[in-house]
Amino acid sequence: MSVAKQLQKCPFCLEPIVAGATRCKHCQADLSEAGQKKKTRLAKYQTFRVGFLSGLLFSLILALLLYAHFVLDQ
Ligand SMILES: [Zn+2]
Questions:
Q1: What is the DSSP secondary-structure string of the chain?
Q2: How far is the CA of 9 from the centre of ligand 1 (A)?
Q3: Residue 1 lies inside a defined structural domain of this protein
């Protein structure tokens, strides 16, 4: 299995750099804090999305059960 280096763009000079690098090799910008902030924000968004989707699914099942209940009642 080969480990391919994932590249991302430096937010300051837009040159390709290795993902997870803490310093840009082109403009020497410090990327450690910016990368961590971005990761945290992404994780928060994903947690929110999972919660939202499971809530939506639960509501859908509940609505379906209520609908089936009323249809069978008649
Ligand atoms: Zn750079």
A1: ---PPPEEE-TTT--EEETT-SB-TTT--B-HHHHHHHHHHHHHHHHHHHHHHHHHHHHHHHHHHHHHHHHHH-
A2: 8
A3: no
